[in-house]
Amino acid sequence: VNEQQVGNENNPMQQTKTIYHIKGTGSNAAKLVNEWIEEAFEWYKDRRKHEQDTSRFFYVAIQGGDSKKEGTNAPKYLFKQYLLSDHKTFNSLFFPEKEALLSLIDQFTQKRGKFAIEGFPDKLGLLLDGPPGTGKTSLIKALAHHLNRHVVSVNLAKIQTNR
């Protein structure tokens, strides 16, 4: 059963309410139906919680012990998860190429410039190099904040295939 309610001039909100009638037969039908409804409602609440969670994470690959990927000799990797804060932004970073980098990122995300050309790869790679303390991780965190993305850190020395 669907019921629609339309607001008034002062409150133009529209609401649709869907009512389901669930029927069961048998000696414990009421119990089974109620358990199913509770399980479905918990699933729905869990889905809504994940939809509303705007947390971003920094994932670091760690080897999963002696375990191997199923059907291969490749080692299995697990990931540690760290919560990313919103403190590192491009507003708190200062380096000479900052405006050029932001322009390139905006062109990439908005498919402008060379990224608008048909057949141009839909990829943007950045190579960061330098001694500890020169801002590589801060740049990555600011980029994750700017793009509202997670970060996955992969040690390229441990990659043994190009697939």
Quick tags:
5 strands; three-stranded mixed sheet; extended; Mitochondrial_chaperone_BCS1; 163 residues; ATPase_AAA_core; alpha+beta; 2 domains; ATP binding; two-stranded antiparallel sheet
Describe this protein's structure.
The chain has 163 residues and is of the alpha+beta class. The protein folds into 2 domains: 2-52, no CATH class; 85-158, no CATH class. Helices cover 30% and strands 22% of the residues. The chain contains 3 helices and 5 strands. The protein has helices at residues 29-52, 98-110, 136-147, and strands at 2-6, 14-18, 56-68, 75-84, 151-153. Strand 1 (2-6) and strand 2 form a beta hairpin. The termini are far apart. It holds the Pfam family AAA. Residues 126-160 form the ATPase AAA-type core domain.
Structural class: alpha+beta
Give the number of helices: 3
**What's the total count of β strands?**
5
Write down the overall geometry: extended
**Count of all domains:** 2
- Biggest sheet architecture: 3 strands, mixed
- Taking the alpha carbons of the first and last residues, their distance comes to 52 Å
State the strand order across the main sheet: 4-3-5
Strand content: 15-25%
Radius of gyration: 25 Å
| Mean pLDDT level | 84
Secondary structure: helix percent? 25-40%
GO molecular function: ATP binding; ATP hydrolysis activity
Domain ATPase AAA-type core: 126-160
Pfam family, one: AAA
Protein name: ATPase AAA-type core domain-containing protein
Q: What does the secondary structure layout of this molecule look like, with pairings?
A:
Layout: E1 2-6, E2 14-18, H1 29-52, E3 56-68, E4 75-84, H2 98-110, H3 136-147, E5 151-153
Parallel strand pairs: 3-5
Antiparallel strand pairs: 1-2, 3-4
